[in-house]
UniProtKB/TrEMBL annotation:
Lineage, opening ranks: Eukaryota, Metazoa, Chordata, Craniata, Vertebrata
GO molecular function: guanyl-nucleotide exchange factor activity
Entry-linked Gene3D superfamilies: 1.20.58.740, 1.25.40.410
Name assigned to this protein: DOCK8 protein
Keywords on record: Guanine-nucleotide releasing factor
GO biological process, one term: positive regulation of T cell migration
Length: 314
């Protein structure tokens, strides 16, 4: 449908029955795509129209479709696969207007980084020549001065949906955490001497938050990044974040319905196993052995102690 199209107002869709038909078609497509919660929202518009027309036959059919959608939510739950997201940055004059532009790509849920990397490298290799395209392997900030001006560079990074704490109060279900997404985050570990990884006491982390022009899911699978924020975490803040993540994983594994003994065993081994490098024991020895001399670190020191307390209680 296009408002500029001649005779659109006299067309068969520009009527009450035409609207109902389009909405029913949308509900079917949402159901096929596994977005069962949106089926309910669509039928909230359709049902009052059908009720006004006393169309009980269609109401019966509509409510049966709603029952099917709600059953699917209950039965499939977190088994649904909504998508995997990657940040893709383009660097080099060969890209023209795309130079230094960043996008978030939505890919099928089981897509791995090498898959999208191989696909984009092959596509742009056909455009510019295989020898002229190079994929940047890390997620560190790109210094254009170090790049070959005769080459086209693509940087691909796995990103995850990002939510502020206040948002999580409204994003309770698995669907809500995977719908209407416009902020994504990726992390880049680094040390002050330039190495990506080091000892616990020297391991920093850069959290980069990207905001897209539109929210996913969208009619396109690639959306421009319009805002970029960076936050540097100090070594003790990195430890706090890691301990919180371990606690969340342990909580999810212990509260799982039905219980999964193998999953719980894997989480426990990953959290407290003696062979785990830089595990909770080493974190405690590095950051909690002594009270920090710098008063600015007192708050983080207490936060980490509270994280350990909650972790042990789990």
């Amino acid at each position: 449908l296009s408002p500029d199209e001649d005779g659109i107002c006299s067309g068969r869709y520009f009527s009450e029955s035409g609207l109902v038909g389009l909405l029913e078609q949308a509900a079917e497509l949402f159901s096929t795509g596994g977005l069962y919660e949106t089926v309910n929202e669509v039928y909230k518009i359709v049902i009052p129209i059908l009720e006004a027309h006393r169309d009980f036959r269609k109401l019966t059919l509509t409510h049966s479709k709603l029952q099917k959608a709600f059953d699917s939510i209950i039965n499939k739950g977190q088994k649904r696969m909504f998508g995997t997201y990657f940040r893709v940055g383009f660097y080099g004059s060969k890209f023209g207007d795309l130079d230094e532009q960043e996008f978030v790509y939505k890919e099928p849920a089981i897509t791995k980084l090498p898959e999208i990397s191989h696909r984009l490298e092959g596509f742009y290799g056909q455009c510019f020549g295989e020898d002229a395209v190079e994929v940047i392997k890390d997620s560190a900030p790109v210094d254009k001065r170090k790049l070959d001006p005769n080459k086209a560079y693509i940087q691909i990074t796995f990103v995850e949906p990002y939510f502020d704490e206040y948002e999580m109060k409204d994003r309770v279900t698995y669907f809500e955490k995977n719908f209407n997404l416009c902020r994504f985050m990726y992390t880049t570990p680094f040390t002050m001497d330039g190495r990506p990884r080091g000892e616990l006491s020297e391991q920093y982390k850069r959290n980069t938050i990207l905001t897209t022009m539109h929210a996913f899911p969208y009619i396109k699978t690639r959306i421009n990044v319009i805002q970029k924020e960076e936050f540097i975490l100090t070594p003790i803040e990195v430890a706090i974040e890691d301990m919180r993540k371990k606690t969340q994983e342990l909580t999810a594994a212990t509260n799982q319905e039905p219980p999964d003994a193998k999953m719980l065993q894997m989480v426990l081994q990953g959290s407290v196993g003696a062979t785990v490098n830089q595990g909770p024991l080493e974190v405690a020895q590095v950051f909690l052995a002594e009270i920090p001399a710098d008063p600015k670190l007192y708050r983080h020191h207490n936060k980490l102690r509270l994280c350990f307390k909650e972790f042990i209680m789990r």
